Amino acid sequence: MADEVIYAAADGVARITINRPERRNAMSWGVISGIREAAAKAKEDPDVRVIVLTGAGDKAFCAGADLTGMRADSSYLEVHDGRGQLAKLFNDFWSLGKPTIARVRGFALAGGFGLALSCDLVVAADDAQFGTPEINVGLWPYMITVPLMRSMPPKKALELMMTGRRVNAEEAERIGFVTQVVPVDELDKATDELAANLASKSPALMRLGRDSFYSVWDLAAVDALKQLHPLLTITSELEDAAEGIAAFAEKRTPVWKGR
């Protein structure tokens, strides 16, 4: 794993930190590959139930791609193929089978904005700023169109991409792509509490339910219901389902087996 990404896991929570604070955690090839490696590690670890993604320092979650560094000593084709790694990273997150939380302080711009919204939930400090400034430098945020459109009304995403304007944490919560806004000094506490809440759920039910959510996202209603119907029957046969019902009846905390 690249030095530009730090991975740590404890108490059921894996934390992936982009470690380029001097560059406002801008994405390099090493950052993208490092996050993918960290996500794969978290996916394979049975003790990890939740993944938190964040940026080092107090200035930025991720200010987007390192536009100068990502071109250095790379051919046209290598740069093109490398950009595809971001799409693979988004798909990695959506297929993790475990909930993901973006912990955002400061700037989440361009690709960093898309990276935050590729997570299931976003907890933001009240100093967070989101935006797609690509239009201002003669570019377009093609790669992050999907996570943006999945996180807010499509025409709102288009407006942000066309204007390049910044969105503060309060507006982000109102639009709906931020789950929770808290004061800076409460960011860690709020993120930890949400992660602990998610980690306390049945990992088997969390995986089945989360996977089903993403698998039916783009389906027509009739096709989605056909896919979801058998999953309800499958879920009812899980040991964790039986345990959850028994614990509810006995007024006790369930003990999940993850199966």
Quaternary assembly? single chain
Global geometry: globular
Strand order, biggest sheet?
A: 1-2-3-5-7-10
- The structural domain count equals 2
Topology as a string of helices (H) and strands (E) = EEHEEHEEHEEHHEHEHHHH
Q: Which superfamily, in CATH terms, is the homologous superfamily of the largest domain?
A: 2-enoyl-CoA Hydratase, Chain A, domain 1
Total beta strand runs: 10
Percentage of helical residues? 40-55%
Structural class: alpha/beta
Mean pLDDT equals 94
State the CATH class of the largest domain: Alpha Beta
> How would a crystallographer describe the biggest sheet?
6 strands, mixed
Fold and architecture overview:
With 259 residues, the protein is an alpha/beta fold. The chain folds into two domains: 5-199, 2-enoyl-CoA Hydratase, Chain A, domain 1; 203-249. It is built from ten helices and ten strands. 38% of the residues are buried. The mean pLDDT is 94.
Tags for this entry?
259 residues, six-stranded mixed β-sheet, alpha/beta, 2-enoyl-CoA Hydratase, Chain A, domain 1, 10 strands, 10 helices
